[in-house]
Design brief:
The complex is a heterodimer of chains A (about 140) and B (about 90). Chain A is built from six helices and five strands, in the order βαβαααβαβαβ. In chain A, strand 3 (about 95-100), helix 5 and strand 4 form a beta-alpha-beta unit. A five-stranded parallel sheet of chain A has the order 4-3-2-1-5, with helices on both faces. Chain A is of the alpha/beta class and about 140 residues long. Chain A has one domain: DsrEFH-like (Hypothetical Protein Ychn, Chain: A), CATH 3.40.1260.10. In chain B, strands 1-2-3-5-4 form a five-stranded mixed sheet, with helices on one face. Chain B has helices spanning about 30-40, 55-65; strands spanning about 5, 15-20, 45-50, 70-75, 80-85. Chain B has one domain (about 5-85): 2-Layer Sandwich (Translation Initiation Factor IF3), CATH 3.30.110.40. In chain B, helix 1 packs parallel to helix 2 (about 55-65). Classes of the chains: A alpha/beta (about 140), B alpha+beta (about 90). The interface of A and B includes residues 26, 31, 76, 77 and 79 of A.
Chain lengths: ~140, ~90
Amino acid sequence: MADRVTIILHSGDMDKVYSALIIGNGALAMGMEASIYCTFWGLQRLQKGGLEKGPLSKMHMLGLGKWMIRQRMKKANVASLERLLADFKDLGGKIIACEMTMEIMGISKQDLREDLIDQYGAVGTYVQEARDSAITLFI
Amino acid sequence: MPEIRVDASQAGCDLTEVRVDVCGETCPVPLVETRKAIRQAAPGDVIVVVGTHPASRVEIPMAVKALGLQLLSVEGTDTNWTIRIQK
């Protein structure tokens, strides 16, 4: 069993993207490998300029909830999604983009931040990555 | 911005002390910056992490153990701690 955490990021909600990146970074910091497979709404976060666009998963309140959480995060000095993503890559984390989602949603490689994406694949890629991972998560 | 300072003032000795300042930073930054410093350090270096995040005072030693490195000391309070790690 590989000492790896594989996360499917299916959701594009801001709080869920935070969870995925914090867990990914935490695992890397503890000496594990980490992969995040971005599919459906998660893949939209990889679009150019799209990282921070997700709503809050609950209590979004037309943007007011998101704004309030952001204020609290700023007060607690929580790192930005951009920074967490950069750290994730810096520590050797892998980002995989779902090709099926790209096809369904009409997203081309040029629409995405190609410099961040290590691999493009379909479900087989995810399964191979996840089958012997010590921790697998669906976010 | 976490600061990494290198002190090679010990003449004739290769030992370097790498300082990581994560005061005011919250999860997961203390863990991440510690990991980065450990990667950059050479074997034998001592990494000194200074921070204020309570959970990290417990979790950084966990990471050190998981990485198979030596924890030299954990000093200070929950909200003002210094952790020394030997690579």
